[in-house]
Amino acid sequence: MCSAMMAFSWQGALLLILAAVVAVYADMQLECWPDSVRLTWAESRSQADTSLFRLGNCLPTSVTATEAVFTVYFSDCNFRTMVTGDKLMYTNDLTYMSSTDSHIDPFTHSVFCTYERPKDWSPLLYEPVFHTYSQGALVFSMVLMNGNFSGPAKSTSFLLGSLIPIIATVEEKGHHPLLLLIEECVASTTPELQPESNLYPIITNKGCFVDSKLSRSKFEPRQKTSEIRLSLQAFKFALGEKVFIHCKLVAYDPINIDATKKTCHYVNHGWELLDNPAYSDLCHCCDTSCKSRRMRSIAPGMLGKVQKTVVGPLVINDVNS
């Protein structure tokens, strides 16, 4: 079963959370330090290749036949940072990548280190936005922006009915040009989606911006294929509370769009395809069900063509309250 070593005290308190159900054939130990972490995964299955473990985008610091050890700084490995009240949280994902001849399926476990927020701590310009980790040659991110998309938002508070500018990008690192899509987005009051979470649908049905049918929300014209901008009208959901927007970003070959690989919003009484309105018939399924197809790999054996990201927390306030 999962076990965790007692973490060192920093700024008076440290809360260690392991958000994973670890099977009986493995043991994970986690030590959270002020600016770094040590994670040890002990694997009893002889078929497992411990060199295939990744913490974010980092390789193990050391491996044996039965253990993978990571000793890394929070500034490395694409750790995500979030501030909630008086808590400062660093999160990442431990992933087993598997191989073509492996008898063990790929799996992922979330890792959390949560501290009391230091009084003198202030976020970087892009905080408190989650940035997803990279897989292979691709790095995905999603950021709250200012009104003209020229830089990050200076505030995460929005009035009901105002527009919330958001930009999603994929950094291709020498890869051939890819088309970035948003398959789905929901708003929640929790940084992690739970079965009991109260949700507000924003984008559903493989790229249908359903909120645009009810509001002024819309996709903005593309500046490049590896980027997508949306203006989301602040909606009546959890007013005055912290809201997190959970999205699934997907990168595809631009020539292979279809009813399951699209970016559709509702414009002038009808669904319109952002990238080529002449092919807006691809959006007709937005009012019914867009059938899913098996995703074509971007490159053989490469993971990371699909990434989940979270933007937030942000707060929507009613001007009359």
| Count of helical regions | 0
Low-confidence stretches: 1-25, 122-135, 294-304
The largest β sheet comes out as:
5 strands, antiparallel
Residue-averaged pLDDT: 77
Radius of gyration: 21 Å
The helix content, as a percent range, equals under 10%
Intertermini distance: 49 Å
How big a fraction of the residues is strand?
35-45%
Q: What is the 3D form?
A: globular
Number of strands: 20
Summarize the helix and strand pattern as letters: EEEEEEEEEEEEEEEEEEEE
Which structural class fits the helix and strand makeup? mainly beta
Structure overview:
The protein starts with 13 loop residues before the first strand and ends with a strand. The strands form 5 sheets. Strands 1, 4, 7, 8 and 9 form a 5-stranded antiparallel beta sheet that branches. It has 321 residues and is mostly beta strands. It has strands spanning 14-17, 26-32, 36-43, 53-55, 62-63, 67-73, 80-84, 87-96, 107-116, 139-144, 157-159, 163-171, 179-188, 199-203, 218-219, 227-233, 242-252, 264-267, 270-273, 306-317. 0% of the residues lie in helices and 40% in strands. The protein is built from no helices and 20 strands. Mean pLDDT is 77; it is low at 1-25, 122-135 and 294-304. The chain is globular, with a radius of gyration of 21 Å.
Summarize this entry quickly.
This protein has 321 residues and is mainly β. Helix content is 0%, strand content 40%.
Q: Which labels suit this protein?
A:
single chain, 321 residues, mainly beta, 5-stranded antiparallel β-sheet, 5-stranded mixed β-sheet, 40% strand, disordered N terminus
